[in-house]
Amino acid sequence: MKKTQDFIQNNQQRFLDELFELLRIPSVSADPAHNGDVRKGAELVAQHLTEAGADKVEVCDTAGHPIVYGEKIIDPSLPTVLVYGHYDVQPADPIELWDSPAFEPVIKKTDIHPDGAIFARGACDDKGQVFMHIKAFEAMSKSGELPCNVKFMIEGEEEVGSENLGVFIKEHTERLAADIILVSDTGIISNDNPSITTGLRGLSYVEVEVTGPNRDLHSGLYGGAVANPINVLSDMISQLQDDKHKITIPGFYDKVEVISEEERAEMAKAPYDEEEYKSSIDIKNVQGEEGYSTRERASIRPTLDVNGIWGGYIGEGAKTVLPSKAFAKISMRLVPHQEPEEITAQFKDYFESIAPDSVTVKVNPHHGGLPAVTPIDSDGYMAASNAMEKTFGKKPVPLRSGGSIPIVALFEQVLGLKTVLMGFGLNSDAIHSPNEHYGLFNFYKGIETIPYFFEEFTKLSQK
Amino acid sequence: MKKTQDFIQNNQQRFLDELFELLRIPSVSADPAHNGDVRKGAELVAQHLTEAGADKVEVCDTAGHPIVYGEKIIDPSLPTVLVYGHYDVQPADPIELWDSPAFEPVIKKTDIHPDGAIFARGACDDKGQVFMHIKAFEAMSKSGELPCNVKFMIEGEEEVGSENLGVFIKEHTERLAADIILVSDTGIISNDNPSITTGLRGLSYVEVEVTGPNRDLHSGLYGGAVANPINVLSDMISQLQDDKHKITIPGFYDKVEVISEEERAEMAKAPYDEEEYKSSIDIKNVQGEEGYSTRERASIRPTLDVNGIWGGYIGEGAKTVLPSKAFAKISMRLVPHQEPEEITAQFKDYFESIAPDSVTVKVNPHHGGLPAVTPIDSDGYMAASNAMEKTFGKKPVPLRSGGSIPIVALFEQVLGLKTVLMGFGLNSDAIHSPNEHYGLFNFYKGIETIPYFFEEFTKLSQK
Predict the structure, then answer these.
(1) Which residue of B185, B189, B218 to mutate against A (max A Cβ within 10 Å)?
(2) pLDDT of residue B267
(3) Which 8-state DSSP code applies to residue B213?
(4) pLDDT computed for residue B170 by the predictor
(5) How far apart are CA A237 and CA A230, in angstroms?
(6) How far is CA A354 from CA A232, A239, A332, A361, in A?
(7) What is the pLDDT of residue A108?
(8) Does residue B420 contact residue B185 with C-beta atoms inside 8 Å?
(9) What's residue A160's pLDDT?
(10) How many angstroms separate the CA atoms of A152 and A119, rounded?
(11) Distances from the Cα of B448 to the Cαs of A324, B138, B179, B262, B455, in angstroms?
């Protein structure tokens, strides 16, 4: 891969400039106002795939946002790597908390990134990481060192549940035939401590609506006599967890994967400093399910979070209103063996059951996703491990992540393919938050590592 | 009052047109963006007072919104009635729930108002009722039948706590010298059942802020391990009341006025139909403090309501965020002997005490107000009772209201004056809500009744 690595070294600035162009497109999949931008994002990704040397590049329409496909088949007898990623991003709000505009990428130095980091929505999740693959592929193909076949499937709905990707892969199992799926949408422990994600949590996401009176009322004339939907919703949310921070939904824990003490002890060995963790987000104390460590709570245990709440008067000043309605967005992270549809149904039954008869409640399911665990003895995992060891000079450790990439489980069900989660982000990258960023070190380290994965995987799978 | 009543009959349409002009001004005192409109409202009120025959009319500047003053002294030896009201209004939102624009008044018929009602923000609270006084005064003075002296004090900050009115009356005790204060900012049981408000609740209004991590976090990477400010705020709100709907703030009930069984039995006699009450706001069941009736909960008992709540992602679609902050506006209605400042302090201490160490909380007091009760044996009350009996053909019943007009207690403290609450609205008028309206019947009945109050009060106070 000598020529490939030289090519990468000689084109670093151009790679960065091209990524900036992609980051300037506000491809927010959750907001219909940005539908046009999402398509622009797809078209630019397609253009880069073509320029990088991919064939049959296509912006595939779906019932929602388009999926970008491209491939390079050099020899059908060689193994094929299917690269998956997404070009859509989370909404930027609260925008007032961004130090620089979310869609005007800039390089800034930080303590963790002394060489500088790219600040922009999607810099890490996932445009920056998708772009590493496109550029690594360009380097290999332009240098004539591409060791095997490659296919790209870059979607635009990962942040809203990947529903149409599910349809797409079911309809294109032939076209997507491969030996392994390679994804960079996760992270490493730190730039000195490489790791590979071996587990992802599933997701159940619902929106709830509590309705009291048929109109907003004067809180002086009706307060105390008519149930207040905000007070009721608060009560109901509070009843979703007990004082040990266990989720109270009947049946919620029934199928939760039990992790052996040995495995927990093994996980506990990964480098971690709780004081550092707390100070990095400026909290006095952590809080979570009794009997589990902070990292266990955020990886091997299911959780419940209110992602948004609103109701009544939220403008300036004071309004003495008893509102008609209150709303909340609530999501649950699931662990292996928990079924999103089943959990959503359990939530709905329980939430409706604890509603007082002074209000009516509606539970509207958003998207869900299955949890996934990836084996650490597969050719794919070994290839990633060897590749990272080459570029980091250190063997990566396997690690369970708390995040969700619902589609991973579906890949296995529909395409019968294992997925390797070789991501290069850091928890401190503030993905989904204001000032999301991605280290230049990580961006270039990714581009450098990916070709070695191709090389290693081709070797191993031909043994 | 024959000439006066004729004058009113002959000018009904003009009175209505003039009120519409005032209703078109969005004098929302809570929103700084409307400061200019609030002043416009003050100037129009002043203009009408002058045209009605008032002297020394002045738009008095304050640290906040102006106060309109005007007077007519026909004979210093005669009694003086001080008319108080407010020309500011509540914010119109949620505007999407208005069937016609909040500041474009229209007449529409309703089941309760077969002759039609005026639909507009402020139609009842309080522009419509203030206007009744200006027009009744015009009728009396133009007909040469004004029986005593009158002073007007119409403020622009009633909906935000009347802070500067408090300063104003302290600085103008001479100028405001009178024998009684007459206010129409309350209601009657129904158009067939006149009533006079003899009690008002006080108010303590706070805004709370719960802060967890220093930035929004990815709920997958941090959820379950870091306290979620929305979940925590919900827990804390839920802890403010117990399962009997009693407020749990230590000391909250200590000074609450105890009402005798006899008095409660007396109050229970006022006409009331709970089924009608429930269906009017479309709720399956009422809910409130154990041991008290619906009307007691909304009048003689203190209450706590969340008037607004917000935090996290409240846009369309799904965002898996663990927010940095969550907020709520919370108000408590107080009954006689409860001190707003003391209650606010008790709330602050308690709210801070129940916060887990995984978050920090801030409690910011908004405005407060003292409760008030008015005697039913005074000349003022008798004058109002006789006047209403004349125009309704039925003796009004005394009634405690759940609302607050904080300034009433201050009038007594600073000016040593009792207040008569002779209002003409209905609970169904949707004040503070979308589609606020005021019956034409009520508007004209008020104009018709007020002159009789002046006549009766002059007679009684000269005995």
Answers:
(1) B218
(2) 82
(3) S
(4) 96
(5) 10
(6) 10, 8, 18, 10
(7) 97
(8) no
(9) 87
(10) 26
(11) 36, 12, 22, 35, 12
pLDDT at residue A224 is higher than 80? yes
Q: What pLDDT does residue B367 have? A: 77
Q: Could you tell me if residue B344 is left (phi over 0), alpha (psi between -120 and 50 degrees) or otherwise beta?
A: alpha
Q: Verify whether the Cβ–Cβ distance A308 to B313 is below 8 Å.
A: yes
Locate CATH 3.40.630.10 in chain A: 2-200+371-461
Pick B2-200+371-461's CATH classification: 3.90.76.10, 3.40.630.10, 3.40.50.2300, 3.90.930.1: 3.40.630.10
B283 closest CB neighbour out of A226, A305, A306: A226
pLDDT confidence of residue A453: 98
Q: Chain B: nearest CA to A454, how far in angstroms?
A: 29
* Residue among B207, B217, B282 whose CB faces A214 most closely: B282
- B61-119 residue pLDDT tens: 999 999 999 999 999 999 999 999 999 999 998 899 999 999 999 999 999 999 999 99
In this model, does residue A242 exceed pLDDT 80? yes
Give the architecture (CATH level 2) of B202-256+302-368.
Answer: 2-Layer Sandwich (3.30)
Q: What is the ipTM of this complex?
A: 0.82
Model pLDDT for residues A110-169, shown as the tens digit of each residue: 999 999 999 999 999 999 999 999 999 999 999 999 999 999 999 999 998 888 999 999
Beta-ladder partners of B217: B322
For chain A, how many helices (H) and strands (E)?
14, 18
Q: Mean per-residue pLDDT for B135-160?
A: 97
Asked whether A452 and A391 are in contact (CB, 8 A), the reply is: yes
Q: Which of B7, B408, B399, B368 is nearest to B169 (CA)?
A: B408
Q: What is the pLDDT of residue B42?
A: 98
CB B27 within 8 A of CB B156: yes
What is the structure's pLDDT at B318?
A: 81
What's chain B's length in residues? Answer: 463
Of all residues in chain B, the one with the smallest CA distance to A322 is B307
What's the pLDDT band for A269 if we cut at 50, 70, 90? confident
Rounded to 5 degrees, what angle do the CA atoms A59, A60, A66 make? Answer: 85
By the CB < 8 Å criterion, does B95 face chain A?
Answer: no
Q: Map tokens 């939907």 to a residue.
A: A229
Residue A230 has its nearest CB partner, among B221, B223, B309, at: B309
- Span(s) in chain A for CATH 3.30.70.360: 202-256+302-368
pLDDT in tens, A48-107: 999 999 999 999 999 999 999 999 999 999 999 999 999 999 999 889 999 999 999 999
Query: How far apart, in Å, are the Cα atoms of A38 and each of A24, A123, A184, A407, B316?
Result: 11, 15, 20, 19, 16
Per the CB < 8 A criterion, the answer to whether A84 and A181 are in contact is yes
User: DSSP 3-state assignment of B333?
Assistant: strand
Instruction: Specify the length of chain A in residues.
Output: 463
* Cα–Cα distance measured from residue B134 to residue B151, given in angstroms and rounded to the nearest whole number: 11
Residue B88: which of B108, B109, B72, B64 has the closest Cα?
Answer: B64
Alpha-carbon dihedral angle through residues A352, A358, A359, A360, given to the nearest 10 degrees: 60
